Amino acid sequence: MKRLLIPIAAVAMVLSGAAHSEAPDPLPSWNDGPTKGAIVGFVEKVTKEGGPDYVPPTDRIATFDNDGTLWVEKPAYTQLIFAIDRVKALAPEHPEWKNKQPFKAAIEGDMKTLAASGKKGIAELVMASHAGMTPAQFQTIVGDWLAATKDPRFQRKYTELVYQPMLELLAYLRDNGFTTYIVSGGGIEFVRNFSEPVYGIPPDQVVGSSIKTKYEVVDGEPTVMRLPEMNFIDDKTGKPIGITQHIGQRPLAAFGNSDGDFEMLQWTTAGEGPRFGMIVHHTDAEREYAYDRDSEVGRLDKALDAAAENGWVVVDMKNDWGQIFPSKE
């Protein structure tokens, strides 16, 4: 029997091809399909040097909403839950709150009355419970609360209820030369507390709502104090404004989950050249939550209707995500 001789160069080519084909999937928690394909296709298109749609790294800006896009926002926004806990902790110092709404509802855990107070009532709660301290003091309070508080349904810390597929997407984009920003309706200092350790996004790449601050010298020490007055609301039409003020250029890609992100998606994808818009649609009541048009938290109605017309990719959480949260350690 004759021995089959294979040139060493040919063996090397075969092994090289095998290694290439077995390269790790950068998005393992995303099920194969049109949604995952659209993400990968867009990234490959804008990063292919010499290609007609190539975009230099300096222009590869990707903006992400936080609540409902990167972490859980049900049954209430995490920062609202924090604000309620702060009001309860501060209540002994404010006896007048026992008979004053929305503080009375917060102290008693009356979420129905609190919801009925609307954005005005919630803003009043947030301002009263988040002011009267320096940003550093506020960061410490937020950090301690996040470290000690668990979501009642999942019995996990809120910083563990982030979406594994979105963590992979953030890393995938950064590995391909994108700069990732959070653009949240939540408080900028609240989100900055955990943005880097949880998402790999440094504090200076967080855009969010803010309260007014005042510079003053206290006991000879220069300091900045947080005031109980709203400065900027980074939601809806505020998001393009916040992006312009903080980032200074239109994003190449934007990711959201609700009507609060509509203007950010609209403005991003109206730019010249290749653009990408994506909506996370909560469709998995078993592993997370299912909601859209009728939800008071994270309502998705107008943006869902506009997705097809604007070419935005809609993620079906139940079918597109093989895993929702990171595995427990």
UniProtKB/TrEMBL annotation:
First and last residue of the signal peptide: 1-21
Keyword field: Signal
tRNA processing found in the keyword field: no
Keyword check for Signal: yes
Pfam families: HAD (PF12710)
Stated name of the protein: Haloacid dehalogenase
UniProt organism field: Methyloceanibacter stevinii
